[in-house]
């Protein structure tokens, strides 16, 4: 299916995604991304937290100039913003930065300071989930860097699936990769990574809600440590 033959209804998109998920389960990441680009054309983008630029790099080799969507929550580590700027400067991608409707100061004025401590779900909804939903409005499909080995909550991530909440096709081309696969790809291609990965951080989000991981912990253990929360709402 080519980009000018995109299905128009949600039912068609859901069926397409479910079929592709089955057919591409054992496919290599570039093949999965080629399917997405051929199917959706400009209606496809990559989302990146700028933990690393692996999926952006993979996609740029399939579609030079591909849109890479980044959420600037206002709470990022300086290293994360630096990684975004470096990716924009040296990779053949079009980085689009999304921002929340309110600045941190405006949010503090309305909800009180440190909302992330008192109600992290609301903070994520305001600074991540809503901006992403608005930023993805003109796309029918989006790629993520989700991997099954990151945590139990991601163990069943399909390589292509249907995002029921956003009514879009969700592509996870490296879902079957391990951390060793990621490290090998980074080393082979000189892919940009966030410097914090070399400083004990295994999963990098907003600074107030991210800590270094301890030996033996899974990659997501440093996010919202001490809370039952494991996801920000972007992926479930």
Automatic annotation (TrEMBL):
Record organism: Streptomyces murinus
GO molecular function: 4 iron, 4 sulfur cluster binding; adenylyl-sulfate reductase (thioredoxin) activity; metal ion binding; phosphoadenylyl-sulfate reductase (thioredoxin) activity
Localization terms from the record: Cytoplasm
Family to which this protein belongs: Belongs to the PAPS reductase family. CysH subfamily.
Catalytic activity, EC: 1.8.4.10
Residues binding [4Fe-4S] cluster: 123-124, 206, 209
Function recorded in the entry: Catalyzes the formation of sulfite from adenosine 5'-phosphosulfate (APS) using thioredoxin as an electron donor.
Boundaries of every Phosphoadenosine phosphosulphate reductase domain copy: 49-211
Gene3D superfamilies: HUPs
UniProt-recorded name of the protein: Adenosine 5'-phosphosulfate reductase
Keyword line: Cytoplasm, Iron, Iron-sulfur, Metal-binding, Oxidoreductase
Cofactor (UniProt): [4Fe-4S] cluster
HAMAP family xref list: CysH
Pathway: Sulfur metabolism; hydrogen sulfide biosynthesis; sulfite from sulfate
Residue ranges the record marks as coiled coil: none
Cofactor descriptive note: Binds 1 [4Fe-4S] cluster per subunit.
GO terms for biological process, alphabetical: hydrogen sulfide biosynthetic process; sulfate assimilation, phosphoadenylyl sulfate reduction by phosphoadenylyl-sulfate reductase (thioredoxin)
Catalyzed chemical reaction(s): [thioredoxin]-disulfide + sulfite + AMP + 2 H(+) = adenosine 5'-phosphosulfate + [thioredoxin]-dithiol
Source taxonomy: Bacteria, Bacillati, Actinomycetota, Actinomycetes, Kitasatosporales
Active site positions, chain numbering: 232 (nucleophile)
Gene: cysH
Domain of life: Bacteria
Catalytic class of the enzyme: oxidoreductase
Record GO cellular component, one term: cytoplasm
């Amino acid at each position: 299916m080519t980009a000018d033959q995109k299905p128009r209804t949600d039912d068609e998109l859901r069926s397409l995604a479910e079929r592709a998920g089955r057919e591409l389960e054992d496919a290599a990441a570039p093949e999965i991304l080629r399917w997405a680009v051929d199917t959706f054309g400009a209606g496809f983008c990559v989302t990146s937290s700028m933990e690393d630029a692996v999926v952006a790099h993979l996609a740029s080799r399939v579609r030079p100039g591909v849109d890479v969507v980044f959420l600037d929550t206002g709470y990022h580590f300086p290293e994360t913003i630096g990684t975004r700027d470096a990716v924009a400067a040296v990779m053949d991608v079009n980085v689009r930065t999304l921002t929340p409707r309110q600045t941190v100061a405006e949010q503090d004025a309305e909800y009180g300071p440190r909302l992330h401590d008192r109600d992290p779900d609301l903070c994520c909804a305001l600074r991540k989930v809503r901006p992403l939903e608005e930023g993805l409005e003109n796309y029918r499909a989006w790629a993520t860097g989700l991997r099954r080995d990151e945590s139990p909550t991601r163990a069943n991530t399909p390589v292509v699936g249907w995002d029921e909440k956003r009514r879009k096709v969700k592509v996870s081309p490296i879902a079957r990769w391990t951390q060793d696969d990621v490290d090998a790809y980074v080393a082979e291609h000189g892919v940009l990574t966030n410097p914090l990965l070399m400083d004990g951080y295994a999963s990098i989000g907003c600074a107030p809600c991210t800590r270094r991981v301890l030996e033996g912990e899974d990659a997501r253990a440093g996010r919202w440590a001490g809370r039952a929360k494991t996801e920000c709402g972007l992926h479930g």
